[in-house]
Write a structure and sequence with these properties.
This protein has about 270 residues and is an alpha/beta fold. It has one domain: Rossmann fold. It has ten helices and eight strands. Strands 1, 2, 3, 4, 5, 6, 7 and 8 form an eight-stranded mixed beta sheet that branches. The longest helix has 19 residues. The chain is globular. The two termini are about 20 Å apart. This is Methyltransferase DDB_G0268948.
Length: about 270
């Protein structure tokens, strides 16, 4: 499931508002691979560690039923609030080794920015159990979205700033070790399934500085700092925002965000 780090109601709301949706090409790649392994129509998909539902919603057009699972009641409540699809169901579950899903009933299992929170020996046998023959598992994630403009030197400055403040000097000690699995683009994870392969995607999206700061505030390491020292946490974000404005030379810049996504897929 999504780590308990994301369980608080306020954090869940921030997560729902600012976390990115997966790229359309990534979702298309999953469905095209599923079509090779199983014949449509597809009955059921399960999104494990669904958080606030961004990764669950995108599956809705392709399945009769989509089920989002998460350990956090707050995240599930947020997902339900934003859900407009009749074929999506959200459930809270804390039993990693006993998912509330019937055996051999699922066409597709997805993990979006969540697989690194699980122990393979606990979750993979469950995925094997619930997948139908040739059913597909797709685990994907993303690394830090970075603002870019049409000036190389300024882009490099922003990149260094984000890396320094939010990953090394200021928040480094607040990150859980699982975060470094994400930083490695899941290269240390091996799926015990057939025909495992890896894909990479890049997503470009328009944003504002305000929304980007909101995204940074959704990080688990930052939320740990908020709980420990709210004033220092606020000062940290304010300082980053002022430095980005100084680099860009604008008070309310429009940003293009570049986000690297990575994925591992295989089948039962």
């Amino acid at each position: 499931m999504t780590s308990a780090l994301f369980a608080g109601a306020k954090h869940a709301q921030i997560y729902a508002k600012y976390r990115p949706f997966p790229p359309k090409l990534l979702v298309k790649s999953i469905i095209e691979y599923l079509k090779i392994k199983r014949n449509p129509p597809f009955k059921k998909a399960v999104d494990v560690g669904c958080g606030s539902g961004q990764s669950t919603i995108v599956l809705s057009p392709y399945f009769e039923t989509v089920i989002g699972l998460d350990i956090s009641e707050a995240q599930i409540e947020c997902a339900k609030q934003f859900n407009l699809s009749r074929n999506i169901e959200y459930k809270v579950t804390t039993k990693v080794g006993n998912l509330p899903i019937a055996s051999s009933s699922v066409d597709l299992v997805t993990f979006s920015q969540s697989l690194h929170w699980f122990k393979g020996e606990e979750i993979f046998p469950e995925i094997e159990r619930i997948l139908q023959p040739n059913g597909v598992i797709a685990a994907y994630g993303y690394w830090i979205p970075i603002p870019k403009i049409n000036e190389h030197d300024k882009n490099m400055e922003i990149n260094r700033l984000i890396t320094q403040y939010l990953h090394e000097d200021k928040l480094g000690r607040y990150w859980d070790s699982e975060r470094y699995i994400v930083q490695g683009y899941y290269s240390t994870i091996d799926l015990p399934f057939k025909n495992t392969h890896r894909l990479n995607f890049q997503q470009t999206s328009d944003s504002t500085l305000q929304d980007y700061m909101g995204y940074l505030s959704s990080w688990s390491a930052y939320q740990k700092l908020v709980k420990e020292d709210p004033l220092t946490a606020k000062q940290l974000l304010d300082e980053i925002e002022k430095k980005i404005i100084k680099i860009l030379g604008e008070e309310k810049p429009t940003l293009s965000l570049y986000t690297d996504f990575f994925m591992i897929m295989g089948h039962r």
